[in-house]
Amino acid sequence: MFDPDSLKSFLSVIDTGSFVAAADRLRLTQPRVSQQVAALERELGVVLFDRSKRPIRATDAGRALSGQARRVLEVMADARTSMDPWRTRAQGVVHLGSYPSVSAAFIPALLRRQAEREPDVKVVLTEHSTLELDAANRRGEVDLYLRPLHPEPPEHVGSLPLWREPLVIVHALDHPLSRIPDPVPLTEVAAHPIISIGRLEDADSADFEAYRVFRERGLNLVPVQATDQPQTLVSLAASGLGVGVTNWLATRTADTSDVRVRVLEEGLERRVALCWDSSRPFTPAVRSVHTAISEADIPEGTSTLSTLNHERDLSSHTL
């Protein structure tokens, strides 16, 4: 009979192209993954990978097995799910990733309700920037995480859209933009130095919403400074360094007494989703936190984001 752990190791090597990367994803040692794949090859009497190639490539037999292996794990996951009515409570630890503004505006109420509903599930909160959250997910350090839908989530990441929130600007009280009525046109903002989300001179930051909306309107965004911390962005704007462009929740969770928070023209927004590694099945504990997030009230000042054409890889992810 197939060992499910060996099948998981086999599929992780298929998905990552490397025994080392597969081990990182599964939080195992590389020798352990190699042993499990070798045991599967011995049981089947076939070679599953061409180890002379870099990245490692599946043989014809390996490619044929991959679809069958995924179906076997899905059937096992369905069998476990069918036992849910006979389980009293979900139990275990769930590592939840988040970024600063969501951690302040959404997570506290969520954790309180989750503790009341599932007291045997311990949620460990991990905070990173968006791109660092993707890396933590890839390393298996988070089970679920909240992130904007831009930049696009990596391949093999499932997502459940949660809400949309407007992009806003933040500027000093005496800034020249104070004379421009709301909503402020982006062309007016572009005439001033900009403080953006992300990291300065980081190519990956160019996929964030602020850069994207500037590009879509034929404007070039070259920020004078960038940060992932809402209060830092507000303080930089208050000092007169430039005009901050950020998401609505970032300003709701910072002290904005020394700045003005302004609405930009319609249609400039951030979309937020719940994400996870779609190659890792959900445990009952992870499923319970996923359900709690999907049913939670969205933050004030945001609006529901339709799941149509956005939800990815949600089915068959329960152990």
Helix-strand category? alpha/beta
| Backbone CA Rg | 23 Å
Number of domains: 3
Helix content: 25-40%
Family: Belongs to the LysR transcriptional regulatory family.
Pfam families: HTH_1, LysR_substrate
GO molecular function: DNA binding; DNA-binding transcription factor activity
Keywords: DNA-binding, Transcription, Transcription regulation
Can you offer a commentary on this structure?
By secondary structure, this protein is an alpha/beta fold. It folds into three domains: 79 residues, Winged helix-like DNA-binding domain superfamily/Winged helix DNA-binding domain (Arc Repressor Mutant, subunit A, Orthogonal Bundle), CATH 1.10.10.10; 107 residues, Periplasmic binding protein-like II (D-Maltodextrin-Binding Protein, domain 2), CATH 3.40.190.10; 106 residues, D-Maltodextrin-Binding Protein, domain 2. Helices cover 39% and strands 21% of the residues. It is built from twelve helices and twelve strands. Strands 3, 4, 5, 6, 7, 8, 9, 10, 11 and 12 form a ten-stranded mixed beta sheet that branches. It has a two-stranded antiparallel ribbon with strand order 1-2. Helix 1 crosses helix 4 and helix 2 packs across helix 3. Keywords: DNA-binding, Transcription, Transcription regulation. GO terms for molecular function: DNA binding; DNA-binding transcription factor activity.
